[in-house]
């Protein structure tokens, strides 16, 4: 009956709700211990030069290997780290892991790619952030030119002079700074005015619609031209289709990153791609959807 169906729907809804909040609760509860036990792992997603299709960089993307929940997405726990202040030790762990990896690659003669690291605003607000970055680079004998930082606008206030100063010092040191998820925030353009940056990462919410939908296509073309006029490099995120790639190439977007070429991979798998060096498009339908 309709009433039964209604009840079933309600039951289904309640159980997803409970499952959702239970998982959130469990993750928040386990986070501190996970940090002590180093239950995290970095995946690497290649960033390609649009013209040569060579891997020029990789974005380090964190996952949590949780005993009960399996591989957990950063979307589900970075906010916990930020809210508890544990993003600072976690951020140090991430940067150390990246630097150790770069050091290992250098010693084994792997290609000299750069690695980009996502940095939360909370990390920038710590007084000795820039100094701690410097000492980690020295500890692992990594040149600053091998590291890039990606900053998302949503959590950073563009007129915060402490952040402007930190970014200036990091760039002076030789670390490139990219503005992540460009176009999704409130003040993307004031960022370009306020900060000296090296590049922008065009958000996938625009990239997804090129060259099919008119408005996003115009926006992407214009943003690329705007960025170039300010001497910024443009990286397109979330490239999933050949048509998107062809369009971005025509528009002189320098680099692309997305499932069309590779998902984020565990380090051994990523090294196999590095060995190959040049990547070919793989339509997403041929890839497993289950992977994070
Ligand atoms: P983000 O920095 O914008 O990273 C790009 C996200 O897009 C990644 O999700 C990546 O897996 C996904 N992606 C890449 N190519 C494609 C594509 O073609 N299609 C689709 N649909 N998605 C694609 P992920 O790894 O789940 O990370 C989500 C967010 O979590 C990141 O967004 C970043 O804001 C945050 N995050 C990840 N790792 C770290 C970290 O080490 N530190 C900090 N502070 N935040 C991190
Ligand atoms: Mg990023
Ligand atoms: Mg981001
Ligand atoms: Mg992004």
From TrEMBL:
All copies of domain EAL, residue ranges: 24-278
Protein name, UniProt field: EAL domain-containing protein
Organism this protein belongs to: Alicyclobacillus fastidiosus
Residues of the full protein shown: 538 to 829 of 971
């Amino acid at each position: 009956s309709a009433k039964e169906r209604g009840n079933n729907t309600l039951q289904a809804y309640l159980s997803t709700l409970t499952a959702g909040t239970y998982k959130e609760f469990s993750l928040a509860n386990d986070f501190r211990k996970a940090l002590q036990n180093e239950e995290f792992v970095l995946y690497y997603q290649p960033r390609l030069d649009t013209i040569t299709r060579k891997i020029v960089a990789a974005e380090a993307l964190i996952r949590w290997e949780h005993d009960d929940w399996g591989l957990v997405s950063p979307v589900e726990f970075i906010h916990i780290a930020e809210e508890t202040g544990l993003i600072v030790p976690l951020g140090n762990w991430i940067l150390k892991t990246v630097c150790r990896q770069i050091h290992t690659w250098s010693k084994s003669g792997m290609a000299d790619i750069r690695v980009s690291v996502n940095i939360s605003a909370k990390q920038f607000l710590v007084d000795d952030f820039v100094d701690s970055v410097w000492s980690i680079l020295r500890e692992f004998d990594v040149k600053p030119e091998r590291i890039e930082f990606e900053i998302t606008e949503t959590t950073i206030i563009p007129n915060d002079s402490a952040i402007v100063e930190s970014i200036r010092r990091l760039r002076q040191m030789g670390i490139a700074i990219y503005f992540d998820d460009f176009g999704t925030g409130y003040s993307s353009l004031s960022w370009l005015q306020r900060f000296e940056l090296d590049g922008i990462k065009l958000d996938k919410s625009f990239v997804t619609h090129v060259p099919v939908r008119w408005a996003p296509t115009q926006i992407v073309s214009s943003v690329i031209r705007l960025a170039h006029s300010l001497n910024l490099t443009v990286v397109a995120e979330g490239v999933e289709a050949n048509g998107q790639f062809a369009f971005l190439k025509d528009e002189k977007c320098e680099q692309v990153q997305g499932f069309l070429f590779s998902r984020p991979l565990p380090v051994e798998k990523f090294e196999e791609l590095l060995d190959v060096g040049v990547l070919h498009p793989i339509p997403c339908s041929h890839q497993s959807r289950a992977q994070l």
